[in-house]
Design brief:
3 helices
Length: about 70
């Protein structure tokens, strides 16, 4: 079912998923760089980037759940 869902998923959903993964990865990289250099401002900014990525991830889960529920009703 997972392969079928991804193959039939909308472009908007795919962009949302990859954006979330990219933001989380960028936030982790920023966090590592900030903590190795001792830059507190960058460390706090990295938490915001990770948080935004997580919000997009949860949004993607909600969209996927709605699409699966619609497919069951058909």
């Amino acid at each position: 079912m997972l392969n079928e869902f991804w193959a039939n998923a909308s472009t908007g959903y795919k962009v949302l998923v990859f954006s979330a993964m990219g933001l989380i990865a960028a936030g982790v990289i920023l966090s590592i760089a900030a903590n190795t250099s001792g830059n507190q401002g960058l460390a706090m900014a990295s938490l915001g980037v990770i948080g935004l990525g997580l919000v997009l991830h949860v949004t993607g889960l909600v969209i996927r759940g709605q699409q699966i529920r619609k497919s069951y009703k058909k």
